[in-house]
Design brief:
Blueprint (H helix, E strand, L loop, with lengths): L1 E5 L6 H10 L7 E5 L5 H6 L3 E4 L16 H6 L4 E4 L2 H6 L4 H14 L2 E6 L3 H5 L3 H16 L5 E5 L13 H14 L4 E4 L7 H5 L6 E4 L6 H14 L1
Parallel strand pairs: 1-2, 1-8, 2-3, 3-4, 4-5, 5-6, 6-7, 7-8
Helix pairs in contact: 5-7, 7-8
The structure holds 2-phosphoglycolic acid.
Length: about 230
């Protein structure tokens, strides 16, 4: 079981330090936090496992605003999220750029959490499997079944909305994703302390990618405990 906290654009170094001083991950579960780039070093210093929220595919170059895998390794990050729906929606990420980022990160020895998921419109028009297939196959073509690769199923309509997928719906999507690419699959989208246990009880839910509820040490720890008691 892997529980990853995606902090998005929250917590500079001071708030990161305060979180890490209070948060204690339970035993029996792998826990990752993904703070903004400027807080990575502070988070690494706490001894927690730390991922970035994206990573570029080149190791260096004229790519203003980007960060490379060797740079992340240098500050002690252990991995990176790639292809989050907010990156796809607001920053022009495509299946191709997501795949390139995932490949470069895994090649460099970073853990990768590659995100996929359908929008509300796509689900309502019956296109969920088609969308997931296209997204997953782009990642598979680039990275294969690399042991550093983990996928995250994050239905866009469930992110930050309080509308969680039902455990059955998550299970169905996870089983489909694994039929295309047999790697662990995290669920993401409004995971909270009070729904984590039922989601994590599904056989193909291998952990969670948590946004809002990862910002408070108590709620994030409660979700981590739900995972630790399942594993
Ligand atoms: P949320 O975000 O838990 O706040 O819905 C999840 C994510 O975007 O990874």
């Amino acid at each position: 079981m892997l529980i990853a906290g995606n902090w998005k654009m929250y917590k500079g170094p001071a708030e990161t330090r305060a979180f890490c001083a209070t948060f204690e991950p339970p035993d029996g579960v792998d826990v990752v936090i993904a703070p903004p780039y400027v807080s990575l070093a502070e988070a690494v210093a706490s001894g927690l496992t730390v991922y970035a929220q994206s990573v570029h595919w080149a190791s260096a170059g004229a790519y203003t605003g980007e960060i490379s895998a060797p740079m992340l390794l240098e500050v002690g990050a252990a991995g990176a999220i790639v292809g989050h729906s907010e990156r796809r929606q607001y920053f022009g990420e495509t299946d191709e750029t997501v795949a390139r980022r995932a490949f470069a990160a895994a090649e460099a020895g970073l853990g990768v959490i590659a995100c996929v998921g359908e929008s509300e419109e796509e689900r309502e028009s019956g296109q969920t499997e088609l969308v997931l297939r296209v997204q997953v196959e782009a990642i598979k073509d680039a990275v294969g079944t690399h042991e550093l690769l983990v996928l995250a199923y994050e239905p866009v309509w469930a992110i930050g909305t309080g509308r969680t997928a039902t455990p059955e719906l998550a299970q169905e999507a996870h089983a489909f994703i694994k039929s295309l690419l047999p790697r662990p699959v995290l669920y993401g989208g409004s995971v909270k302390p009070d729904n984590a246990a039922e989601l994590l009880a599904e056989p193909d839910v291998d952990g969670a990618l948590v946004g809002g509820a990862s910002l408070e040490p108590d709620s994030f720890a409660a979700i981590c405990r739900a995972a630790s008691s399942r594993s």
